[in-house]
Design goal:
The chain is an alpha/beta fold. The protein has one domain: Metallo-beta-lactamase, Chain A, CATH 3.60.15. Helix content is about 15%, strand content about 25%. Strand 2 and strand 3 form a beta hairpin.
Length: about 300
């Protein structure tokens, strides 16, 4: 059974986010927004994090920003069902709840390996493997979790970390499971090694673009004909200067979405400076992109 998107435009920042049990459908592919916000006081949202559900099981987690572990629990997802967790980049906004998530997973009764993929810079600098060791390794900040990196952990599974090159323009595609196939491509986010991730499930696909300014001009081709493109909405269209070194304006988002022929667009990582101007952002995007447009909120589900 194929699910079609019902477009919902949520304008304005809600005073509170409803935490009713989410429903992502019993069949098909669904995107769930665990965190749609950023790290700011006065932003009533978890930081960026997402799930991809396939036939009522959460199979992939993307990023683990602050609040992600709580939202994961609220979503009803099972850690044992995840095929992998991928990180777009290693900034706190996208990894702040990673240790919490892994700590909570110790009683999840998972077995075997848990693949965790993230970016690495030139010659392995600023690599995800180093980050995880500094976070939960034997000499890490939370070294009480260090046995999760061993074959015989007390939790019954091992976190298997793999660095994905985040330099140049080459596409990486070295992981697949019986449920999905992953690929990644470097994107420009200032001097921070960063990746956009594509998830292919049969003939359907989702691209999680993360934070970028598209200086590398790799995203449109990478996201070609994706069913959904999830991208950060951090800047208003009038933003200038240093902000544009790391993020896209709505006009730029519209051009990328149109060039990639994405079936629909989800704006997440919503910063406080974009609250209350959703109509202006929508208008700027729709100058070039005519497809359905969604302003994400925590725990929402969208079917492909």
């Amino acid at each position: 059974m194929r699910y079609f998107l019902v477009v919902l435009l949520l304008l304005g920042a809600p005073k509170s986010l409803a935490l009713e049990p989410p429903y992502c459908g019993d069949e098909g592919v669904w995107i769930q927004i665990l965190g749609s916000g950023s790290l700011e006081f006065g932003n009533p949202r978890a930081a960026p994090s997402y799930l991809v559900w396939i036939d009522n099981r959460a199979r992939l987690m993307i990023d683990a920003g602050a609040g992600a572990a709580l939202r994961f629990d609220e979503s009803g997802a099972a850690f044992t069902d995840l095929d992998a967790l991928v990180l777009s980049h290693l900034h706190l906004e996208h990894t702040g709840d990673l240790a919490n998530l892994l700590a909570a997973s110790r009683d999840a009764d998972r077995k075997g390996l848990f693949p965790l993929f993230g970016p690495a810079g030139e010659k392995g600098e600023k690599a995800t493997g180093d980050y995880i060791n500094r976070l939960i390794g034997s000499r890490g900040v939370f070294n009480e979790l260090s046995d999760l990196l061993k074959f015989r952990s007390s939790a019954g599974y091992k976190v298997s970390v793999r660095d994905v090159p985040a330099v140049g323009r080459r596409r990486w595609s070295q992981f697949s499971s019986e449920h999905l196939k992953l690929s990644a491509v470097p994107v420009h986010h200032g001097g921070t090694p960063s990746l956009a991730w594509r998830v292919d499930i049969g003939e359907q696909s989702v691209v999680f673009a993360g934070d970028l300014n598209n200086q590398k001009d790799t995203l449109s081709a990478f996201a070609a004909n994706a069913d959904a493109l999830v991208i950060s909405h951090v800047l208003p269209d009038h933003a200038r200067g240093a902000d544009r070194e790391t993020h896209l304006t709505p006009s730029q988002i519209g051009r990328i979405a149109e060039a990639s022929n994405a079936r629909f667009l989800i704006l997440s990582s919503r910063a406080k400076r974009t609250f209350g101007i959703e109509s202006a952002s929508k208008a700027a995007i729709e100058k070039t992109y005519k497809g359905p447009l969604i302003f994400a909120n925590d725990l929402e589900c969208w079917g492909l």
